[in-house]
Write a sequence for this structure.
């Protein structure tokens, strides 16, 4: 019997967005809520692709402190930090520069410099240098493609660089050929849309309608070529509407400490990460962080249960996490807060991810890491 296992990833299609909607109920009536991995898509996707936690696969945010091996020392050498802010702060300029850097160093992963200041970037390295979806993409940890190759299962995994419709067409073409037994369809446009219109935007229904039409096209082709199929839709996290902003950077910089000598910091949109270079700076920064409104400093206990207690503190000696809905503005990811964001506490209702399945799932789906175990189970069914 010829069977296909098909998984479709829809970025940011959280449980709160899906729970009261009829989206694809005819195809995937069994619906599950799963806890997001603390962090962003940059954390959740490697977690789903490997079934491992951040402390094992080492992906949390994009930038981590590594002054000795930073590939961005070239920025210092080229004196790029002296370019006027009106040029380097333009998104288009940064996007082109990011492409140049990626080409120069042969990066195959998603590389974007965002709003990281050019006079600070040389303190950091960037984690996502390789394509996480291809064999050896997360080595030494095994990813989805490695598992499929090991088992000798013919497969198709989308190219994340392509547009959604291009990936759908590429999948349909493979299905028509009938060789593949496992497919992972990747789509990310829902995330960008939710960031702009929030989970209450009327555009969300239109977008879901479009996905529904496309998926029915895919499944019609599957039915023509295969005797049986399994289908699931999965996501990595939800989306939380903006409540307000806090200028964390200004508060920390108000202490008058020297960046690079006393401390180093990265300001992600929902979390600040700090490395202390001397005790005095540590004391003063921890003190000011505890006074920042709508935020909390993560305890060692929090770091452990979120699996971000890295042995070498590569992502920070201390993390400041914003309360749900509260964003850091400005941050190193952008000058202005977005109408909605993710990356808050995984326990918050808007953070939860979802898995919609064509059959009842008989393994526990507690966190998104369990989605990997479900994919392994469906590979087993094929062999
Ligand atoms: Zn996003």
């Amino acid at each position: 019997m010829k069977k296909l296992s098909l998984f479709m990833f829809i970025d940011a299609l959280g449980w709160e967005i899906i729970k009261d909607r009829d989206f694809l109920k005819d195809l995937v009536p069994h619906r599950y809520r799963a806890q997001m991995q603390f962090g962003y898509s940059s954390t959740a996707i490697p977690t789903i692709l490997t079934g491992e936690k951040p402390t094992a696969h080492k992906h949390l945010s994009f930038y981590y402190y590594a002054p000795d091996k930073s590939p961005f020392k070239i920025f210092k050498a080229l004196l790029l930090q002296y370019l006027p802010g009106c040029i380097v702060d333009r998104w288009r300029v940064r996007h082109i520069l990011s492409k140049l850097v990626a080409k120069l160093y042969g990066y195959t992963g998603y590389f974007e410099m965002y709003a990281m200041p050019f006079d600070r970037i040389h303190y950091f390295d960037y984690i996502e240098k390789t394509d996480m979806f291809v064999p050896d993409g997360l080595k030494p940890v095994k990813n989805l493609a490695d598992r499929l190759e090991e088992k000798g299962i013919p497969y198709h995994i989308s190219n994340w660089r392509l547009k959604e419709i291009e990936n759908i067409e590429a999948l349909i073409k493979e299905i028509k050929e009938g060789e593949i037994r496992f497919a992972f369809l990747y789509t990310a446009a829902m995330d960008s849309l939710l960031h702009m219109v929030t989970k209450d935007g009327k555009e969300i229904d239109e977008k879901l309608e479009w996905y529904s039409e496309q998926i029915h096209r895919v499944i019609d082709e599957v039915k023509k070529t295969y005797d049986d199929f399994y289908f699931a839709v999965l996501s990595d996290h939800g989306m939380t509407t903006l409540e307000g902003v806090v200028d964390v950077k200004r508060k920390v910089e108000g202490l008058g400490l020297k960046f690079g000598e006393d401390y180093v910091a990265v300001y992600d949109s929902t979390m600040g990460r700090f490395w202390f270079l001397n005790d005095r700076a540590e004391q003063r920064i921890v003190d000011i962080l505890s006074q920042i409104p709508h935020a909390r400093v993560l305890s060692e206990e929090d770091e452990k249960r979120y699996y971000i207690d890295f042995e070498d503190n590569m992502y920070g000696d201390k993390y400041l996490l914003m309360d749900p809905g509260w964003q850091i503005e400005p941050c190193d990811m952008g000058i202005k807060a977005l109408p909605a964001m993710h990356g808050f506490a995984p326990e918050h209702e808007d953070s939860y991810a979802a898995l919609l399945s064509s059959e009842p799932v008989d393994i526990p789906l507690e966190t998104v890491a369990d989605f990997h175990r479900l994919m392994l189970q469906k590979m087993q069914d094929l062999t």
The CA atoms of residues 149 and 289 lie 47 Å apart. DSSP finds 14 helices and 16 strands in the chain.
